[in-house]
Every structure is written in structure tokens, then in C-alpha cells.
Design a protein that fits this description.
299 residues, mainly alpha, hpI Integrase, Chain A, 2 domains, 3-stranded antiparallel β-sheet, 12 helices, DNA-binding, DNA integration, Tyrosine recombinase XerC, cytoplasm
Length: 299
């Protein structure tokens, strides 16, 4: 078997595979040989391979890892077929266990509020950071959507944000009161050439990049004593989780997130925007009723 593996790896090397890929193929086939134990891997049947997958799965290998190993085995048996070592490919019709779906991580409501409320400072970039993260949490923005925002995407009169999502699809989202306050504070600090359309800028007056936003949030989370690593998409997950917990309106949250569907079987159904705004105002923990001012609050 060792000789067969060596010849297979040599074949892949001649085909131009990288050393990293060659090492991975060799390790995957040697793992199969070790898992089979009683029977040589070259003689494995489809049932033998299913048992090997089940055994590795029971040992804790993820669906992603098993899929990669099965792909290596499939290539190995295909090579054996081409070289007269087998008449069939026992891995041809096999599938690895489904990859587990990791639940998105979200901050608790008080944790999100504590993080955002502690982003303070005298630097104009601090005002920018607070505006960015309030807006991400307020509107459920993806990182790419945040980076792409321009000045004219913010409708201050109606408190709406125009978002360019995946596939070039645009959507409107209501902006919460706190995010509006922080956006105005940032615009008081924003300094850029007249032709620069970006809403959020770096220190040198150019559009802020995604990596910079990730780093700033990570640094703020550490500085404010967050108990876990925080990234921008976590704020988006928090938006969805908190709004859904409060409203129970799955389709409204789906619309606000810009999702075509929430699962492979659930198709998005459009909702009237006024209904979405009503759900948002009544449910989001940092929203405020439209037209309501501090003077309207009970004393």
C-alpha cells in the first residue's frame, strides 16, 4: 500500500499540485488505511468507506474535514481505476455527513449597549467609530455594506439608510435615534475633499476599509472590557437576534437584513415597508418612535 500511495502522490506532483496539497492527499489516504485496519484500503468497498467515515465522525471530525478526506479517497480510487488497480470507484457515490451549521454569535442586549456606550473620546476618529458601530447595530449592516456607504445614502429627514447589498440589490432600513445622533456628530468631524463620496473615512480622508473597521472594533472591545472577541458581523447578528426576540416577526427581520431566504427551503416574502418601520420602531432596543422628541418623554 505504501508503494501505491507513493506512486499516486508522484502522479499528482507531475500534474503540478502544490507540496501542501500533496501532503494533504497523502495524510488523507494514510488515515483511511489506518481506520480500515483489517482490510487494505485498496480493497475497500462502499460499505467499508461508509464505516470509516462514521468512525472518523464519531472521533470528532467535522463535516467539512470529512468532505475533504472523502474527496482525496475518491481521487485515489479514480487513479487506481485508470491504472488497472480496480474496476470500480467505491467512493464515487458516497457523501460526507452534512456540515454542521454554526449558530451565529450575538451579544446580549445589555452587552451590545455597554460596548457602544463606552466608545467615547475626543478624537474625531472616535466619533466616527461610534457612528459606524451604532449604524451597523441599528440597521443590521454587513461589513461590505458599511464600507460602501456614501454620504447621499443617509436620508436625515426621514431617518432612512439606503443599503447596497449582495448582488447589487438595494434596500431601505430605518435608522435608530442613537445612530442618527452619532452620525451627525461624525459629520461635524468629517473632513475630506469635496469629491469624496464615502460616508466613513480613514485618517487620510479616503474611504475606510473593512480590515480597518474590524481592527477598530476589536480594539474598542478590548479597551471597554468585552469578555469575548467582537467583530462587525456580530453586531449584525445581534441586530437580528434582538429584533426577532422583541418582535417575533421573522419576515420583517428577513427584509431588514436583506436576505432572500433564511434557509434553503424558506423563500422570502416581501412586506410593506411601513409595516417594517413599525416593527423596527416598536422592537429594536435602540430605536425611537418617529417624530418623537425628548420633550415628548414623560417626566
Amino acid at each position: 500500500m505504501d508503494e501505491l500511495i507513493r506512486r499516486f502522490i508522484d502522479h499528482l506532483a507531475v500534474a503540478g499540485r502544490s507540496p501542501h496539497t500533496l501532503a494533504a492527499y497523502q495524510a488523507d489516504i494514510e488515515l483511511l488505511e489506518k481506520t480500515m485496519q483489517a482490510k487494505p484500503a485498496r480493497e475497500a468497498s462502499p460499505t467499508d468507506l461508509r464505516k470509516a467515515l462514521a468512525k472518523l465522525h464519531a472521533q470528532g471530525l467535522s463535516g467539512r474535514s470529512l468532505a475533504r478526506r472523502l474527496s482525496s479517497w475518491r481521487q485515489f480510487y479514480h487513479w487506481l481505476q485508470l491504472n488497472g488497480g480496480r474496476e470500480d470507484n467505491p467512493a464515487a457515490g458516497l457523501r460526507a455527513p452534512k456540515r454542521e451549521k454554526l449558530l451565529p454569535k450575538a451579544l446580549p442586549v445589555d452587552g451590545a449597549a455597554a460596548l457602544l456606550d463606552r466608545i467615547e473620546g475626543d478624537d474625531g476618529l472616535d466619533a466616527r467609530d461610534r457612528a459606524i458601530f451604532e449604524l451597523v447595530y441599528s440597521c443590521g449592516l454587513r461589513l461590505s455594506e458599511t464600507v460602501a456607504l456614501n454620504l447621499d445614502d443617509v436620508d436625515f429627514s426621514d431617518q432612512l439608510l439606503r443599503i447596497r447589498g449582495k448582488g447589487g440589490k438595494e434596500r431601505l432600513a430605518p435608522i435608530g435615534a442613537e445612530a442618527m445622533v452619532r452620525l451627525r456628530a461624525w459629520l461635524d468631524e468629517r473632513s475630506a475633499a469635496e469629491e469624496e463620496p464615502a460616508l466613513f473615512l480613514g485618517r487620510h480622508g479616503r474611504r475606510l476599509g473593512g480590515r480597518q473597521i474590524e481592527k477598530r472594533l476589536r480594539d474598542w472591545a478590548i479597551k471597554t472590557g468585552a469578555s469575548q472577541h467582537v467583530h462587525p458581523h456580530m453586531l449584525r447578528h445581534s441586530f437580528a437576534s434582538h429584533l426577532l426576540q422583541s418582535s417575533g416577526d421573522l419576515r420583517a427581520v428577513q427584509e431588514l437584513l436583506g436576505h432572500a431566504n433564511l434557509s434553503s427551503t424558506q423563500i422570502y416574502t416581501a412586506l410593506d415597508f411601513q409595516h417594517l418601520a413599525k416593527v423596527y420602531d416598536g422592537a429594536h432596543p435602540r430605536a425611537r418612535k418617529r417624530g418623537k422628541t425628548d420633550d415628548d418623554e414623560p417626566s
